[in-house]
Write a structure and sequence with these properties.
Elements: E1 2-10, H1 15-31, E2 35-40, E3 49-56, H2 59-69, H3 73-85, E4 88-96
Antiparallel strand pairs: 1-3, 1-4, 2-3
Length: 101
């Protein structure tokens, strides 16, 4: 299993827009075989950092997801929403290997 960790720098005045964007992606990741663990929005501390975590059974399956989202209509709507609202300033993506009991 591989977990994708996304760290976003968001516009702190557009948190509601970012939350709407986040809610678009949770079912989309699940639709393509991933398991979304949620988005985490600012509460205390920095007001412009958000995080998302989702897993795929393998890096190869994550790569397939990346290919499919390029042509999926709902994914394109989500991408367009983020671009239109400019709620995301930047993001970085890392991959982790989860450890469970």
């Amino acid at each position: 299993m591989i977990t994708c960790y996304l760290r976003y720098i968001i516009d702190s005045y557009k948190i509601e827009d970012f939350e709407k964007y986040a809610k678009m992606w949770i079912p989309l990741v699940n639709k393509f075989g991933g398991k979304h663990h949620g988005y985490f929005l600012p509460h205390e501390g920095a007001n412009n950092i958000a995080v998302a975590l989702f897993s795929f059974p393998s890096l190869a399956e994550y790569e397939e997801y990346r290919k499919k989202i390029k042509t999926d209509t709902d994914c394109q709507i989500a991408f367009a929403f983020a671009e239109k609202t400019r709620c995301i300033i930047s993001y970085e993506r890392s991959f982790m290997r989860p450890v469970f009991e």
